[in-house]
Write a structure and sequence with these properties.
By secondary structure, the protein is α/β, with parallel strands linked by helices. It folds into two domains: about 20-155, no CATH class; about 160-345, Rossmann fold (3-Layer(aba) Sandwich). The protein contains eleven helices and twelve strands. It has helices at about 1-15, 60-75, 105-110, 115-125, 145-155, 160-170, 200-215, 225-235, 260-275, 290-295, 315-330; strands at about 40, 50, 80-85, 110, 125-130, 155, 175-180, 215-220, 240, 280-285, 305-310, 340-345. The strands form three sheets. A six-stranded mixed β-sheet has the order 9-8-7-10-11-12, with helices on both faces. Strand 8 (about 215-220), helix 8 (about 225-235) and strand 9 form a beta-alpha-beta unit. It is globular. The model is unreliable at about 35-40 (pLDDT under 50).
Length: about 350
């Protein structure tokens, strides 16, 4: 009961003073000081570099989708794309070097071509993108054009592929694995976002899918310890998960710094979880940028997808702060959630 009281108090504080994740570093303003209209050329005959910035950005895969949309522009125009998340830091940037880089993009992805960012800024042969996610940009990246574009210029770093391969060999072989991605914490209060499941809905849905499809293992991915504790308690040894992945009862992942290189590891956690989800047999999810990235990886469409349909939160930010909790506590005839939720096979 104590943890629920603490959770309520923290939610109330966030309602009064909403917390937004912020970078640990400030962007280097002198980079853009002498650049009119976000572009500058010295010699149009030379290679034009297309520098993609997003600060402070958002979740790892929101940033990834943003970059993909700009890759499309750069490639169409014949510019060479570069992602600068060093001079324009994101919420994942660390104060010190990670993997010999201060560029948060380089923590997780590698460029197919070497370049010197300082020399490029000095050369003047570059375009600097807007920081805005335009309405024309697509959130849907599950198509071959985006896959080809990404592969042309970047790749996921080998160490993450190696970890995924090793984990699958150890935990997934000879099993029928259902991946479960449950967003909780901040998602319960996010305006105009899909409602996450209640704990009881989650337990009922997982039980139904195991019974119907004979899943032998559950690969559980959630940042919310309310879900994690009760699912692990009910399904016991069926549940596998990344032990080092950060989990909490509160929406505090970017408020505190509980481990060395915590910001970097938050991105690493979700990247590895998404890569492992793409190697499972089934996938239960609320539509998020994580599920979009999993579909991006699953180019042969091997997964059975179970998209949770639990309704949409209010577009009013103040109402959205409380609506999920009201629906969780209220009976169905007063607008509360159903005991069971439906899923759509995508």
């Amino acid at each position: 009961m104590e943890k629920y009281i603490k959770f309520f108090i923290k939610t109330l504080k966030n309602f009064i003073h909403p917390y937004e994740a912020k970078p640990l570093l400030e962007f280097k303003k002198n980079i853009t000081k002498n650049i009119p209209l976000s572009f500058k050329y010295k010699n149009s005959k030379n290679q034009i570099f297309y520098i993609i910035r997003r600060t402070p950005g958002a979740g790892l895969f929101s940033n990834f989708i943003f970059v993909l949309n700009h890759l499309k522009i750069a490639d169409t125009c014949g510019f060479f794309p570069i992602v600068d998340m060093e001079n324009f830091p994101t919420i994942y940037n660390e104060q010190n070097y990670v993997k010999s880089s201060k560029n948060a993009w380089d923590y997780y992805f590698k460029s197919k071509k070497k370049y010197d960012l300082k020399k490029i800024y000095k050369s003047g042969n570059f375009i600097l993108t807007s920081n805005k996610f335009f309405k024309s940009f697509s959130h849907v990246i599950n198509n071959q054009k985006f896959r080809v574009l990404f592969k042309k210029y970047f790749d996921i770093k080998n160490e993450y592929f190696n970890f995924t391969k090793s984990y699958v060999k150890k935990n997934f072989l000879k099993e029928k694995v259902l991946a479960i991605h449950l967003r909780g914490t901040s998602y319960k209060t996010s305006a105009n976002h899909p409602f996450p499941l209640t704990v009881n809905q989650a337990l009922n849905l997982i039980s139904d899918l195991i019974k119907k499809h004979n899943y032998t293992k559950l690969f559980l991915c959630t940042e919310d310890l309310f879900y994690f504790d009760l699912i692990k308690k009910k399904f016991g040894k069926k549940v596998i998960f990344l032990k080092d992945s950060y989990k909490s009862y509160y929406d505090d992942a970017f408020e505190i710094y509980p481990r060395k290189l915590h910001r970097f590891k938050l991105g690493k956690d979700i990247l590895l979880e998404a890569m492992l989800i793409s190697k499972c047999d089934g996938f239960v999810y609320t539509t998020t940028n994580v599920s979009e990235f999993v579909k991006f990886l699953d180019k042969k469409k091997k997964l059975n997808y179970y998209s949770i349909e639990n309704g949409l939160n209010s577009s009013n930010a103040y109402i959205a702060k409380w609506l999920w909790f009201y629906k969780d506590l209220s009976p169905n005839f007063l607008g509360g959630f159903n005991k069971k939720t439906s899923v759509k096979n995508d």
